[in-house]
Amino acid sequence: MASDQTQGGGPAPMTGLTLAITSIALALGTFMQVLDSTIANVSIPTIAGNLGVSSSQGTWVITAFAVANGVSVPLTGWLMGRYGVVKTFVASVVLFTIASFLCGISWNLSSLIFFRILQGAVSGPMIPGSQALLIMIFPPAKRGTALAIWSMTTLVAPICGPILGGYISDNISWPWIFLINVPVGILCAVICWRNMASRETPTRKLPIDRTGFMLLLVWVGALQVMLDTGKEADWFSSPAIVVEMWIAIIGFVAWVIWELNEKHPIVDLSLFKSSNFAIGTIAFCLGYAVFFGNNLLLPLWLQTRMGYIATWAGLVAAPSGVVAVFLTPFMARLLTRVDARWVATLSLSAFGLSFWMRSGYTPDASFGVLVVPLLVQGVAMSTFFLSMVTISLNGIPPQQTPQASGLSNFSRITAGSFAASLATTIWDRGAAVHQTRLAETMSATDPAYVGTVGKLQGVGLSGLQAAGAVTQQAVNQAYLLAALDFFRVSAWLCLILIPLVWLTKKAMSGGGAHAAAD
User: Which residue from 341, 298, 358, 295 is spatially nearest to 489, judged by alpha carbons?
Assistant: First the structure.
């Protein structure tokens, strides 16, 4: 919408060096936001150890950001319409930079989680804002170039996140994974404001659905707190968890009823009347949740049970992003000629194969063996987002596309944050079950156990030290078996989602006629 207004009598598209510098600044805005959703993944054990909490508590650093970011996304459209795209984007970058600084100077887990919530809440407009402004400053003939810059940035950041987070945690200090945003944010805000303040989009006074937004905060917040604290509180044996569950349920029902009857809803739930949007969004959310949970679990397992430092855990995860960056331009062209349902099937099959390959990991798996399934995941990443967005938005009227895109992003991000909480809980519970089974076979009279303890005593360990070493190996083995179970179930979940995709209508990138004809 903003780009159309600019073409119709507004400032001419940028050219030359000004266009290049402004494009880089806008790309940096996207880069920072996406980077901060992944950079902490490999740093969780380091952060948790430094702040004196468990790794599972440390995952709140990830989920707090994701939930706050997801909840703030529905506000983006209203903010841009009320204050203009340029002001909203620049203000978001400035506030994000301040919040990043506060994260870097956090003194305990509670303060870090609070500042991560703040960081996520103010970052909502950064990705849609950078996309809208890139389209605005490029000539219409080069709009594809603008979208390519934006897409590549969103894929490069997840590659850099684990590597950068790991390197900083190992060689500098974990606060710098947040403090590095400060100079980048200042540079981005200054350049964007100087070069685009005169290109502000028209504004108008718009009503805001305050009640809907508050109800959204209540039910999403209550559900996330329940998922994050449930394990430590022994789930539903805790009165607090039961109260949080009922607040989430009642809040969700009240929110749905309110939004369906509100004249200007913050989230337009009527979009779910479109079968493609409803089914496509469900498949998108479930697929992303499985992907996000696995992306969190792998570096956590490598660092806490396999002895990997954060840098190497990041390097294991990085190849998937490299493959995705290389293949995405080809897959984007493929989507203009092939039904998105076939591309989504390829993506979910590749995800399933990647997770199934991971279920064959062994305690002595080499770096190369760990990386190969991630290369397959890169194929899935290059097609997943493109195909799912194409399916979900197929048949949505142009005037409703921004609301549909916002609702799809909110649903996806929220699903990912819930998956992060559930992944660590499922992993720990699975490990406890396997530990019990292993303990049953490790009796003091078991020949294998006695022989192993004897060998360890033979190299200088005391009886107690030898028994402790064997027990620790059993715990590591239990966590490995639990991780393998998680990977195996994830693979099946991806395959189960394929028939769901085929319940939607035919969709092709940029081709509404194809959908209509089906």
Answer: 358
Q: Are 120 and 103 in contact (CB under 8 A)?
A: no
Query: DSSP H helical segments within 335-462, as ranges?
Result: 340-358, 367-393, 401-441, 447-458
Q: For 321, list phi and psi in degrees, rounded to 5.
A: -70, -35
Helix (H) or strand (E) holding 298: helix 275-305
CA separation for the pair 250, 273 (Å, rounded): 23
The helix/strand/coil state of 438 is helix
* Integer Cα distance of 261 and 68 in angstroms: 25
Residue 511 dihedral angles phi and psi, to the nearest 5°? -125, 80
Question: Structurally, what CATH architecture does the domain formed by 267-518 represent?
Answer: Up-down Bundle (1.20)
CATH topology for 1-208? Answer: Growth Hormone; Chain: A; (1.20.1250)
CA-closest candidate to residue 58, choices 478, 421, 419? 421
Calpha distance 446→450 (Å, rounded): 6
* Measured CA distances, 419 to 4, 289, 296, 427 (Å): 38, 5, 9, 12
Q: What is the pLDDT of residues 93-108, one digit of tens each?
A: 999 999 999 999 998 8
pLDDT in tens, 451-492: 666 666 666 666 666 666 667 777 888 999 999 999 999 999
| Cα dist from 127 to 75, 393, 409, whole Å | 13, 18, 11
Give one word for 9, left, alpha or beta, with left for phi > 0 and alpha for psi -120 to 50.
Answer: left
Q: Where are the domains of the chain?
A: 1-208, 267-518
Nearest C-alpha neighbor of 29 from the set 110, 89, 114 = 89
How far, in Å, CA of 254 to CA of 26, rounded? 38
